[in-house]
Design goal:
DNA-binding, alpha+beta, about 140 residues, homodimer, Chemotaxis protein chec, globular, 6 helices
Chain lengths: ~140, ~140
DNA sequence: TCCACTTTCTACCACTTTTGACCACATCCT
DNA sequence: AGGATGTGGTCAAAAGTGGTAGAAAGTGGA
C-alpha cells in the first residue's frame, strides 16, 4: 500500500522520478506499465495497470448510455495515457497534464493506497492547509479516528 | 499501551531517539515500520503501521467523495511518511513535519495509548496549560471520569 | 505510393549526490 | 563496575540526474 508524501522532480523532458519509497513496492508487486490520468485536471493520478483495470471492470457494469459513465470517461480519457517506467524509475508525464496541473520542477508525490497522486507544490500545500469544519470533526469523531 | 511523557532529542540529521520506555513495548508488540504524520501540522504522530491500518479501515467506510474524508487525507497524506526504526531505536522525522511542527533539538514524546506523539517543548507546555471548558467538564463527567 | 530526410522519442549509460545501516564511543543509573 | 541507554560519525549502497545515440515516427517531394 502506498502511503505518505515524498518530494520528487520532473525534469526538462517531463520525466517524473518515482520516489524510491514507492518504487520499492512497485518493483515487488507491479510491473513497469502505468496508466496516468486525472479526474479534475488539477492532480495527476498514476495507476499500476492492474489497479486501473479494477476501475474499468467496475465501469463495465454501467451501460454505455449512462451519462455519469460517459462524463467520467470523457475526463479520464482526455487526460489519460499509458506509460512505461524506465530502468531508472522514471515515467513521462503526459503533456496535457503537465500543463493543466502545473506538473513541472519540484512536485509532491502522494501514496493513495492503491495508486499515486502527483500534485504541484502549491496545490499540495493549499489543500493541506484547508481547515477542518465542525462537520468534519463530528464525522471523524463518530468513526473513532 | 503507551503512557506518559518522556523527553527525547532529535539530532542534526533529524533522527528522533525513541525513549527506552516506549521502545520496550514496540520491541515486544510491534515491528520496525512506522507511519509518521500529523493532523494539524503542530504535533507529529507516530503510528506502528498495524495501528495506522486500523484508521485506514475506518476511513474505508466513507465514500471517496466525502468531503471530510478528503480533507482528512489531504492533511494526513501531506505530512505523512513511512519510516523504519534503526537498530538503535531511532526514526527519521519527515522534513516537512520537522519544519511545520518545529521538531528539532529537545522534544517531548507522549504515549497516546496506541501511538506516540512528538511535540516541541513549547507546544507541549502550551497545550498542557489550556483550561478545561464547561463543555469538557460535562463530557468527562458524563463518562464518569 | 514510396523513398529520403528531419525531427522526436525513448532506452540506456555513466556519473553525482544522498541516504541509512552500522560501528564505536559517551553517559547515565543502579 | 557494568549493563542499559543515548549520541555522533562513517562509508558503502541506494537514489537521483543529465545526457546521448540509435530507433521510431513524422513530413514532404517526386
Amino acid at each position: 500500500m502506498f502511503r505518505g508524501n515524498h518530494p520528487a522532480r520532473v525534469d526538462e523532458k517531463g520525466r517524473l522520478k518515482v520516489p524510491a519509497e514507492f518504487k520499492r513496492l512497485i518493483d515487488e508487486r507491479y510491473g513497469t506499465e502505468f496508466y496516468i490520468t486525472s479526474r479534475d485536471g488539477k492532480v495527476a493520478e498514476i495507476y499500476p495497470v492492474e489497479e486501473w483495470r479494477r476501475i474499468e471492470e467496475k465501469l463495465a457494469k454501467l451501460s454505455n448510455f449512462n451519462p455519469s459513465k460517459k462524463r467520467f470517461l470523457n475526463k479520464v480519457n482526455y487526460y489519460g495515457q499509458m506509460v512505461e517506467m524506465d530502468a531508472q524509475g522514471r515515467v513521462l508525464m503526459p503533456q496535457i497534464l503537465r500543463e493543466s496541473a502545473a506538473i513541472k520542477g519540484d512536485v509532491a508525490v502522494y501514496g493513495n493506497l492503491t495508486y499515486l497522486e502527483v500534485r504541484s507544490m502549491e496545490v499540495s500545500k493549499q489543500l493541506a492547509e484547508e481547515q477542518f469544519t465542525a462537520e468534519d470533526e463530528k464525522t471523524l469523531d463518530e468513526l473513532g479516528i
